[in-house]
Amino acid sequence: MTEQTLTERVKTHRFFTGERALDNQPILLNHRRVFILPTQRGLGFAVLVGVLLLIAFVYNNNLAYLLTFLVASVFFITTLHSFKALSGLVVQPGQAKPVFAGTPARFDIYLDNPSNHPRPHLHITLENTESLTIPPQTKASISLSSATYRRGWHQAGKVTVSSTYPLGLFRTWSPIRFNLKVLVYPKPAVHGSPFPESAAGEVQQGFSKKGADDFYGMHEYQAGDPVRHIHWKAYAKGLGLYSKQYGGGSSAQIWLDYEQTSGHDKEERLSQLCRWVLEADQAGLSYGFVLPGLKLAPESGVAHSQKCLEALALF
Question: Would you list the DSSP string of the chain?
């Protein structure tokens, strides 16, 4: 394969899929990155110019020639203004927050217009298209959504900046492939099971009976449970009615263990664990977390829940 053929293939690939931007660095839109083609209206305009030229030639009419050249000049001058609608813009991606599977991921895109003329009717496309106008010497941001279906890393894909300014005769666009991705957590189970009483189904040595001072777990409220053991904080948050369980001597912790989680398959187990992590975090509980090859000591707080959710997403 010759060097010329290889260069042509690279240009064709960029034409359809866009040029990859490494390390999410700001991208300056210039003549190498901006493409332009006539729209359907532009093709009709070109046909009109051809018809006018044919009429002028057949009738040898100077006024017809003047009208033809005037219309043709508008067509060609529009090419320059269409290119300038994008040329000089600086595009940079922002940060994306983790989401749960089935929830659209939101990607922020920042655009900088360092020139002295406005950029009207810009269209930014990922899976949906958003429009905006950027005044001179101004920065703007826009949020694009992308559907997620499964846990793990979700790539944003190709981001396209386009415009049909000023007359809609030409479409200029620049496809860019940022290294933009977001972590997708498992979808929480719709109806969560009660919290497990302990990690491995057993309590540490020294446990005597329920009703003593050391908290070791929770279960759904049952008739006859002491009212003082009801977890009112969880109930107020709409998590359901649970009773706290206590044991004497040495206490046992709540453990969320993959091997002890019910489910028909791996994804159902991960969804149930995800639901438990969210409910335990909202209720302010201290819990341990166990996956094959990973064990996190019992803790509470946002940082601990994020570690658990990230482990579920990447498991």
Answer: --HHHHHHHHHHHHHHH-EEEGGG--EE--TTT-EEEE-HHHHHHHHHHHHHHHHHHHHT-HHHHHHHHHHHHHHHHHHHHHHHTTTT-EEEE-----EETTSPEEEEEEEEE-SSS-EEEEEEESSSEEEEEE-TTEEEEEEEEE---SSEEEE---EEEEE-TTTSSEEEEEEEEE--EEEEEPPPPSSPPPPPSSSSS---TT---TTSSEEEEEEE--TTS-GGGB-HHHHHTTS--EEEEEESSS---EEEEGGG---SSHHHHHHHHHHHHHHHHHHT--EEEEETTEEEEEE-SHHHHHHHHHHHHH-
- The verdict on whether omega for the bond into residue 104 sits within 30 degrees of 0, i.e. cis, is no
Count of Cβ atoms closer than 10 Å to residue 14 Cβ: 18
The structure tokens listed for 218 are 């929770």
Spatial contact of 123 and 103, defined as CB atoms under 8 Å apart: no
Better-scored residue on pLDDT, 40 or 247: 40
Cross-strand bridge partners of residue 146:
105
In single-letter form, the type of residue at position 191 comes to H
The model's pLDDT over 47-61, given as tens digits with 9 standing for 90+, comes to 999 999 999 999 988
Residue at 86: amino acid letter: L
Count the residues in the chain. Answer: 315
Alpha carbon 215 to its chain centroid, in Å, reads 40
The least confident of 12-26, 44-58, 177-191 is 12-26
